[in-house]
Every structure is written in C-alpha cells, then in structure tokens.
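Good morning C.,

I know you're traveling, so I'll keep this short. The sequence:
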Amino acid sequence: MSLTYDEALDFLFPRTTTIKFGLATTRVLLKSLGNPHQVMPSIHVGGTNGKGSVCTLVAAALREAGWKVGLYTSPHLVSFQERIVVGGVPISEEAVAMWTSRLLSKILERKATFFETSTALAFADFAARGAEIAVVEVGLGGRLDSTNVVHPLVSGITKIERDHMKYLGDSLELIACEKAGIAKPGVPFVVGERNPALVEVLRREAKRAVRRADPRGTADIRVLPPDYEWCGPLSLAGPHQRRNAAVAQGILAALPSPYRPTQEQMEQAFGLVRVPGRLDRRGRWLFDVAHNPDGMRSLVAALMAIRPARPVHALVSILGDKDWPEMLVQLDQVIDRGFLTIAPTAAARGWDIKWLRRWLRDPSRPPPRAEWTLIPDFHEAMARVQAGAGTMLVTGSFHTVGDVMTALGMEP
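The tokens, ready to paste straight into the viewer:
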C-alpha cells in the first residue's frame, strides 16, 4: 500500500498516545530496512532538559567541520519534518510517505508506536541521503528508549530533573538510573549533571549498563566540572545555554580525531546556531518551550537577565501530567499578566480546566504578583495577548509554542 504524506501522518499520529519501552520492535523495523543505523557513526544525547539544544549545537559544529550530519530530535513544533534533518534540510514529504508505506505491515504486525516508527524513519532517511554521522536525541528515559539501538562514538547526559515520573520513577535517582542506560562499553560517556549525588548514581548505573552489554567491557565516564560553562561566542539566549554549550563541547572533545571539530569551528558554529522555541524572539513575540519546573526555572532566570520590554503578557498552556502549579508560581515572578488556555494539539493531554479554575481561586496558594485570566478558547486567548503592548510570551509546552507559530503562519 502506498500512502501520501498526509495519509502517513494520519496513520502515525494516533500512535503517539501509546508509550512502549524496549528495543525489540525498533530493531525489527530497522532490520526490515537493512539496519540503516549501523551504516554510520552516531552521537547519542539524553537528559531531562537541554538535550535538544545540545544535539543542535553538536550537529552545527560537525557541519562546520565539513561533515554531512543527520540530526534526529523530538518533539517538533509545527511539522513532523523538523524531527529528521540531514545537512540542515528536513526530510521530504515524499520520503515520510515512502518509508511509512514500506514499514506499514511491520508497524501493524508489531503494533509499533509513533516514536518507534519515527526512529526507524530517521535512520532510513539518514542512510538514503548519505549522512556521514548522526546526532540522536533520546526520546524518553534512555535505557529502553527506541534510540538506544545505536552504538555511538560518544554518549552524553545533560542534566537530571523531575519529568515523566509516571514512566521513569518518582525520584531523581530512579530517573538517573534510566538515563544512564545509554552508556556503552568503551564509549565515552559525558556527564553534564552538577549534583554530586546524581553524578555518582550516573557513574554507578553507567558501569552497570556497560557490564550488562559486555561483562569485560570498560566504562569511560567523563564528568564535566560543575562550574564549567562555555565562554566563547553563543547565539542562544539564556544563562542555562552556556552550560548546554559546555556539554556539547565536552561531547565533541570526546570524539575520535577524524570527527572532532577545532575550537575555531565550534566557536563559529555556536555563534550562529539557532534552536527554534528556545528563548526565540520574533518581533514582540517571545517563544520558549519550558514544559517542566526545571525548564520554567531556566526561563524565569533568562527573563530576569534579558529584561524584555514591559509589560510581559504570557500565553500559557501546560500538559496535565506536569507539575503546573509550581511552574505557574515561578512564572508569576517575571510577567505582568498571564492568560491560561488549552493548546489545540494538546487538548487530549492538556491540564484539567476545572482543577485549574479551583487552583486559581485557592486562597492558600502563594499570593500572585501578576494578573491571571483563564480563557479555555485558544484563539480568544491569543487575541487577548496580542491586544496588549510590550512583550508577548508563549510558553508551557512544545504544543503551545507550535500551535501559536502555526496560527501566526510562522516557520519554526
């Protein structure tokens, strides 16, 4: 059966509601395509926050060094094609349709999830377009994430924070255990986490992961100094991006010499790189995909540093499984007015409006500094934000940022 691009997406997107851990199905899909993930070297990056920025920085430096780079990140903002990029060019609609059609019977047979399928599509497209090295972002966790089929040149962890606790565990230690599962025998494992206790968990679990893969294997663990930050040119705004750039630098420095960019190439790439949706200023609009408490802390710190034009009017929609009360309390420090709504593409996973309304009325919550208004209708909320002067901030999830960009006709 041959699908069109739209038919392929209509087939794939309903599968986003299923999360399945394990590598078996991904391996079956890849084997049916000739194991494209084995024909090129790769770099594997996990962590709670920052991994998308780190992957983009690493890919940019490799491109500056002359390599044709495949970049696989998630989620997307506006188009599925953003997830799979080779040499700076997203996967074509025709390729998405072709690879999905080719995998259709296996997807149905194995009941493959959206992410298992998109991972197979990514490696197929990388190989077809002649990618010389792949930079791969972990989707969820690490040990049992679909992307853990790779045996990379380097793997790295950005930081450990609370997120996806339903799947990864209800403590930072348990989350770290899952994320350390991307460590491989003899492969440099770069750690950007600063908390000494979590660093020790990552060390221990990385060694365990190596021993599971090869009882005689060695673990090459490289922990970045907690106070180290990138000091060179950096186009990404926000204090937290200095640490992300340092992690990217650490990963690049751990590469074998043929792939390792020079300092000058890193500076050139880091000074020009762009990551959509991360303190992404477009005129009066300011987009940031902060989607958990740690991400919101980083956004708040960045807003305090960059001091956007006042008043700051925020359009906010957060997924229901996040710790959104803590996120709103943090955001309250730096905005003047907040409009709470439901992003259309997140309607099935959005926060509960009744619960949110009760929370806003709760006299025991921290006294708000900003004025908050609940407007469930997304387009009405957008109109209210646009009616004000100053800065229009959009945050709370990838869905929120992507839906506003789509409504405004903006490219990511």
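Safe travels,
E.
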